[in-house]
Amino acid sequence: MSMDTIDIIDINWARLELLPAAPYTTNSASSHTSLGLAFARQTGVHAIGSDIRHDFDAWPGDFAISTAGLPMFSESAHGGEYLLMHITNPDLLADMRASSPRQIFHGDKQAVMLAWQLRSLLLQKDKDALLLQEKAGLFLQRGLALANEKSSKVKTSSPYAQDKVLHGRILDYIEDQLDTALNLEELATMANMPLLRFLRSFAHATGTTPHAYITERRLQRARLLILDSNLSIADIAADCGFAHQSHLGSAFKSRLGLSPQQYRKLPR
């Protein structure tokens, strides 16, 4: 199966794509430098810049920059929602200092927030072209800043790898318990961390707070049910861990700029 898009739009200097949480196989080399951010965790197999395939575990908040012409194979049995931006005007990349053909930045709060805003704009029926360009420009600006900062730094050890192992168990637990009332102190205990350190560590790993991450996962599950079932909005809210239908509606409006009813009417 190819990698279909939820939505795609060209702005003057870039092409934006919103890729769905669906099984995919892709094997290509983009003619443009691209920036991508994962909204959800996904696992699979990929080969980047070679024929050697490796298992991958992409985390929510992973922000990747891939240079033009880089051969990439990627396959996942379930996929995960993903924002992809191809830079069609290479002049905008003149100041980029890439330390490698593909760079991945973990848990950058600014990049995550901008990606959420771009997703919301892409889902609108009547798209605000000027605001899309503005947010896309800020997304590119953040990517260039991270790339240039990384290229100028001396490589040092990071707590990310260790924290990722700890938080992997937390993400799995959250996924299994999305329809229940999750407790922050319980999550910190599972990670064997004091509460404040857990909050810092989780944000470092994912680019967002535990509450915002849980809301994101509940929204993604609700979106699938809204589009793929005939369940009422109230039943979907309960199945996804929202205390009330109005809470689901508020989360939809805040994160996606749409009501659940408007989302259900989107073309597929």
Description of the structure:
The strands form two sheets. A six-stranded antiparallel beta sheet has the order 1-2-9-4-7-10, covered by helices on one side. The chain is built from nine helices and ten strands. A hairpin with a 5-residue loop joins β5 (42-48) and β6. The protein has 268 residues and is of the alpha+beta class. It folds into two domains: 7-152, Jelly Rolls (Sandwich), CATH 2.60.120; 160-264, Homeodomain-like (Arc Repressor Mutant, subunit A). The model has no long low-confidence stretch (mean pLDDT 91). It is globular.
Question: Which SSEs are present, and which pair or pack?
Answer:
Blueprint: E1 7-11, E2 14-19, E3 24-29, E4 34-38, E5 42-48, E6 54-58, E7 63-66, E8 71-76, E9 82-87, E10 102-105, H1 109-123, H2 129-152, H3 160-176, H4 184-190, H5 195-206, H6 210-228, H7 233-239, H8 245-256, H9 260-264
Antiparallel strand pairs: 1-2, 2-9, 3-8, 4-7, 4-9, 5-6, 5-8, 7-10
Helix pairs in contact: 1-2, 3-5, 4-5, 6-8
Question: Top keywords for this entry?
Answer:
single chain; 268 residues; Arc Repressor Mutant, subunit A; four-stranded antiparallel sheet; 9 helices
Taking the alpha carbons of the first and last residues, their distance comes to 17 Å
Radius of gyration: 19 Å
Main sheet properties: 6 strands, antiparallel
Poorly predicted residue ranges = none
The average pLDDT is 91
The CATH homologous superfamily of the largest domain is named Regulatory protein AraC
Strand content bin: 15-25%
Which structural class is indicated by helix and strand composition? alpha+beta
The total strand number stands at 10
The total count of helices amounts to: 9
CATH architecture of the largest domain: Sandwich
SSE series: EEEEEEEEEEHHHHHHHHH
Q: In which range does the helix fraction lie?
A: 40-55%
Strand order of the largest sheet: 1-2-9-4-7-10
The global form is: globular
Number of spatially distinct domains? 2
CATH topology of the largest domain: Jelly Rolls
> What's the CATH class of the largest domain, please?
Mainly Beta
